[in-house]
Structure formats: C-alpha cells, structure tokens
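methylated-DNA--[protein]-cysteine S-methyltransferase
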Amino acid sequence: MIDYNRVAKAIRYINEHATEQPKLDKIAEAIHLSPYHFHRMFKQWAGVTPKEFLQYVSLNHAKKLLQKDQTIAEATYQTGLSSTSRLHDLFVKIEGMTPGEYKKKGKALDLRYQFGESLFGPTLIASTGKGICHLSFVDDKDNALQQLRKRWTNARFGEEKDGHIEKLQQQLINKQEDLDEVKLHIRGTDFQLKVWEALLKIPAGQLACYSNIARAIDNPKASRAVGTALANNPVAYLIPCHRVIRKVGGIGEYRWGSTRKQAIIGWESANAENNDANI
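Structure:
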C-alpha cells in the first residue's frame, strides 16, 4: 500500500514551489526519499510520472476540462452514459431514506463502522446493513467518529465487520480495476439527493462547475445551494463532489482537504487518459 502521506507532502511541496518548477530530486529530497524511489513510488500510485502528473493538476488543464464540459455536460446528464469514460452511476446506486427514516436520524438503526485505508489516505466507512451510509477520509480518528455520531444521533454504533464495508474497502485499495455495484443508503433532503445523483454522472477524469450541476437538476439559479449540498456529501469519493470546481478553473475547497482533492483529480485524470489510450 502506497504511503498517501508522502504523496500529499509531495503535492504540497510542488504547489508551494510552483513558480520555481522544482526538479525531481528537489521534490524527492523534501519527502525524504531518493529520486529513484520517489519516482517509482509516485508512478506506482498515479500510473504516471511526477512530471506528467503536474500537467493533470495544473490550472490550464482544469480550465480545458471545464471548457470541454460545456459541450458534453447536457448530453452526459441526459443519457447517464459517456462514450469515453465509465460513469460512477454505472456501479453506485443511491437509495434515499424515507421521510420517516430521515426524521428519526437513525433511531432503532444499527450502524456498523470500520476504519481502513485507501489510495487517498485513511478512511472511516459505515453501513446501515442496506448499504453504505458514510465514507470519509480520516486525519483524526476521534474527530471522524464524532462527526459520524453527530450525523446519526439516535443510532446504535458498533465497530464491526459488514459485507458492504468489506467490499468497498477492497475497491478503495485495488484501484477499482474490477468494479462491483456499491449500494448507498443515505440521509438527505430531496434537493441534496438530486445534486448527489447528478454528481454520479460526471465521468472520471472530467470536471464540472457549480452552475453545470444546477442546470443538470433543472434549477439553474441554485449554484450556491449546490455548493451547500456538496459540503454535506456523506460519502466521499463515491459521490464525486471532488469533480466540481470553480468556474474560473481553481480547484476550490474540499471537505477533506484541498490537497486530497487535487490528488484525486490528478489521479483520475491520469488514469482516464491511460484507459482511453488503451481502448
């Protein structure tokens, strides 16, 4: 398993020294690896070299993806399919809770949770038994668990194994080469569920802006509300709020850290391009 902390540290160093265009040996030195081992580690994680990865996280690349999205967004959202990329909604199925379940905030519900690892750092995953209800990236275990309990104030919690959790943990560390359907069982308002379902239709390696999502749910004036729905996304990565950036092309904020968002975007872009090249 790749040490994501080293990857993140390298990305932060690159960002902080962007104007200097640091060479491989400088980046490697900053994360206490030899240039050879850093190059090998990074390519094993991203599928591309550090130099190539920089192209995928650049502002110019983000702007190009947004410009491309202006022409493909409507067709993609309408059909739910893409000719060039496999979409999240082909393997992620959302089941929204009933109004009664939503109101109870987990009353009489047994939530199982487990901490684990992923390509983008430690995770906390929880399941209702019907499906995954929570996935977050973890920097502090106590705080992560506290946030989960806060969302499900009336539920009973147990750090136990669960089939939904175990399957997802495998997919998060195996680069999703063989995707099985993942069922989500989540709490959200009707508006939030519409936003989260729209996010599933953004292909991996592509980006959208808030106004694109607002148009996709037939509420073009709701860009600000879309941003709020993204901030309340209970399932990181699978509901890909990381694929939404500001219209000017900046990466923007992310609930689990802007460096992690940049890492996911770059990783997905590199892998999507490699997949297209192999078709």
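The domain at 98-187 is CATH 3.30.160.70 (Double Stranded RNA Binding Domain).
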